[in-house]
Task: inverse folding
């Protein structure tokens, strides 16, 4: 084999190695992209599930707060209604505050 044949053979081997590296890189990129897609889909599924759970909890808490507020308001109204109206004391206080007399 002449030097030229050896060099030609080495260039062919280098080209083959380059092609193998390129194919390996393409395969690695494909696998990475595929796994990224699968992971993204799993993430979105889990995210939507958790979001739904949290939304249900949030709405439940809102309903409980509204019920508690309505209950407190009714209790307050009842307390106000149960208070006796003291017209005489009110009139005396107004007389004292506005006119300074007893």
Result:
């Amino acid at each position: 084999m002449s030097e030229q044949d050896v060099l030609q053979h080495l260039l062919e081997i280098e080209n083959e190695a380059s092609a193998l590296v390129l194919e390996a890189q393409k395969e690695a990129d494909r696998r990475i992209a595929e796994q990224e897609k699968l992971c993204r889909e799993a993430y979105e599924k889990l995210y939507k599930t958790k979001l739904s759970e949290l939304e249900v909890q949030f709405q439940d808490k809102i309903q409980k707060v509204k019920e508690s507020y309505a209950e407190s308001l009714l209790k307050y109204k009842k307390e106000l209604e149960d208070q006796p109206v003291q017209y005489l004391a009110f009139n005396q206080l107004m007389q004292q505050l506005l006119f300074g007399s007893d």
Remarks:
- DSSP finds two helices and no strands in the chain.
